Amino acid sequence: MLKGTVTKSTGSWYDVKAEDGTTYKSRIIGKFRLKGKKITNPVAVGDQVAIEIEDNEENTGLIKSIFPRENFVIRQSPRKKHEMHLLASNVDQAIVIMTIKQPNLKQGFIDRFLLMTEPYEIPTIIVFNKADLYDEENDRAIYGGLKAIYNDIGYKVLLVSAITGEGIEELKAVLKDKTTLIAGQSGVGKSTLVNNIQPNLTLRTQDLSGHTGKGQHTTTFAEMFTLVFGGNIIDTPGIKTLGFNHLELLDVAHNFREFFKTSPACRFGGNCLHRDEPGCAVKEAIEEGIISELRYINYLTLLEEVEEQNYWERHKGKV
Predict the structure, then answer these.
(1) N or C: which end of the chain has fewer CB within 10 A?
(2) pLDDT exceeds 90 at position 206
(3) Cα separation of 286 and 11, whole Å?
(4) Whether residue 254 is found in the same domain as residue 163
């Protein structure tokens, strides 16, 4: 048996880098489950696994067991909405790549992404790319407003440009000596940005669709890359949407961190959903400008989505 780290997932085969540096093309033997959830991919990039060598000449192996995970990032499967998909495991932090234009900003995606990492206490950095396209009067003002909102609740926000190099050194400092999941919606320039950080990675890139102006998926699987200045990045497929069939209403409420921090002062405490309940401290904080109304609007949208899914749908993915 050898211990190694899963560095690439293609669905049926996994690259496992053993402790001696050898990479084995490996497949799964047996069934692995994530407690309480049905998952489409039982093994994720970042997993520490035990493999049995199948063929020394071909460097193939069999994954026999998975070591306990320190954490993981999971999302609702885009193809099987009642199942979950593991994006990565054992990460030190996550980065969500956004842009104000080309494609136009979808601010709600930030809060959806944070709802994916916050339950597992994974530090998350918000990076706005394509700064070279931003005009001073509108785009940079929007960036400044969003930076203030997320800085106030403890998230780091960076402005970068893969074209001019603005902010790249600061981003590299954030990545150094960490294992970082990097994700974003298609078209935000994630692959181009990573190639700027370390050109020899040569991640695949693709332009926006001329017909729709939307990003095209260029990454079809997750993969870990080693950074020459220290650390690893896990590149993930471009994300179109994030759904949360697996969450309950209070899960949403408890993972908007400033809401959770304020909720002990609510009349109903941790059971308050901050909608129509009397004596809601969160709503009072919004009226006083202490909590962002923009975040609150996104929160209400997420609550409605989870609530509209019937009980069977929201529990089908659970044991």
Answers:
(1) C
(2) no
(3) 44
(4) no
